[in-house]
Design brief:
Shape: globular
Order of helices and strands: HEEHEEEEEEHHHHEEHEEEEEEH
CATH architecture of the largest domain: Roll
Strand order of the largest sheet: 2-1-8-7-4-3
Helix content: 25-40%
């Protein structure tokens, strides 16, 4: 009998050990992927050192969002070289970083002084000698332990404005407001194991409020003092609700999908794809923009910060305002 008890104890220990191993291995892999994203910005972006590119980017790597066309790995590295050529003091600083099994998400601040000519989307811009700061929200998809795809979102219009190269006519420029975002730090998480709760909250806001017009979801899942920071402005919860109502008026068939999300600790990042038909005229002060009655496709990468109750209290959005204005017919593409 004592021998049987001994074997049972050994079997129980082996079972516990085997049960823990997959979780431990997953945690190790997540930390390795966190290091890869950190190296992406330190080695490739900030240092323009591509010697280790094979250990960071897949051979078939594709970047979506930096221009009118997707970038291959070689095109992406050429893009980074162009950043350093135009801004010799260029740096990339990560402010928020989340990592899961096959996805990661980073909010990064790019800075530099526009010193030399810069070609963007086949247009060459003259330097103005001014400092440039712009934010990007990026979703990273991993495959075989390297980054296979990046889905990038940033305010292209805001970048051009800082370069003294805004394509907006004066009357429109006066009406288009911009948001301001100070540098943020990702504090240690105050909650654990709440990732599913955070995903559920975002899903309710998107499906209930944006897709179906039930605005009570905004009050339920967004704190009363909620603040959203985005290229078109910084808004309170009530102002955000007004923006959602306006969008549903302009685009009656509005539908928002969430093709990818990453949640870790108190943060959640998601890629939102807005589709619909711009079928109601837009009135902005003295400006009236006729409805195009054409389909639109708008992409937002959003980072949401949650409190200990699982309620969002702030978010940071990035999207291409210029692309939005072109699709709305406000300016020509």
């Amino acid at each position: 009998m004592p021998i049987q008890r001994g074997w049972r104890f050994i079997a129980l220990c082996l079972f516990c050990l085997l049960s823990v191993q997959p979780v431990f291995a997953q945690g190790v892999q997540i930390e390795k992927q966190r290091q890869i994203v950190t190296r992406l910005y330190a080695e490739l972006f900030s240092a323009a050192d591509f010697a280790s590119a094979d250990t960071i980017l897949a051979p078939s790597y594709v970047n979506h969002g930096y221009g009118s066309a997707d970038l291959s790995r070689q095109d992406f590295m050429t893009w980074i070289e162009s950043l350093h050529a135009a801004m010799p003091d260029f740096k990339a600083s990560v402010e928020v970083l989340m990592v899961e099994d096959t996805w990661a998400a980073s909010r990064v601040r790019f800075t530099g002084t526009f010193t030399n000519a810069w070609t963007l989307n086949n247009t060459t811009y003259k330097p103005n000698g001014k400092p440039i700061v712009w934010m990007l929200n990026i979703m990273h998809r991993f495959e075989n332990r390297v980054i296979a795809e990046d889905f990038t979102a940033f305010d292209y219009l805001g970048l051009l404005q800082q370069m003294d190269a805004s394509p907006l006519p004066a009357v429109i420029s006066a009406l288009v407001q911009s948001g301001e975002v100070n540098p943020i730090e990702m504090p240690p998480a105050v909650t654990t194991g709440q990732e599913a709760v955070h995903r559920e909250a975002l899903t309710h806001v998107i499906n209930d409020a944006l897709n179906n017009g039930d605005y009570t979801a905004i009050d339920t899942y967004m704190a009363a003092d909620y603040r959203t920071y985005e290229p078109f402005g910084n808004f309170t919860r009530e102002q955000f609700k007004g923006v959602v109502k306006a969008l549903r008026t302009l685009i009656p068939d509005l539908h928002v999908d969430i093709p990818a999300s990453v949640a870790e600790g108190d943060w959640l990042a998601a890629r939102l794809v807005y589709t619909g038909t711009f079928s109601t005229p837009l009135e902005a002060g003295p400006l009236v923009v006729p409805a195009t009655n054409k389909p639109i496709r708008l992409i937002i990468n959003v980072f949401v910060h949650f409190n200990t109750d699982g309620i969002g209290f702030e978010d940071y959005k990035e999207y291409n305002r210029l692309g939005w204005l072109v699709q709305a017919g406000v300016i020509k593409g």
